[in-house]
Amino acid sequence: MSRLMPSENDRVQGVIGWSSFFFAVLQSICTFFAAVDGLRLVIGVGSLAISAGIGTAVDWFHQDWIRVPMMVLALLGSSLNLLILMQVRRLRNRPASQWRQLPLSPKKIRMERVQMILSLATLVLIGIEEYLHFRWCHHL
After folding, report:
1. What is the pLDDT of residues 87-106, one digit of tens each?
2. Threshold 0.85, pTM exceeds
3. Are residues 46 and 72 in the same domain?
4. Is residue 66 domain-shared with residue 101, that is, in the same domain?
């Protein structure tokens, strides 16, 4: 009778566990693509139905009573976010707060950058939308 040593037994169990995981991932990928294949038909039919009535939906959604408050909220939100980020940086860089500062984690730095980029992108998109709206509709 061949008895495996404990370290060999752990290695064999690890190989079995990882191979099971590998085959489960393969099965999930297969299931995903099968679901996406059926979803393509739904997306195609849905886009056809939407394109037939998209004109009325765009006209309704682009009315001033809904467009202007959305633009104002987006402008206020992104401006407030930028002001808060500027205030945090200003307070962090003050000489009085240098003694208690800990180095920022890479995650914190990355999140602040993402917030700044999204806020600036929002402001750029608001500007583009207002420019195009003025150009096509001749009013803001």
Report:
1. 888 888 888 877 777 888 89
2. no
3. no
4. yes
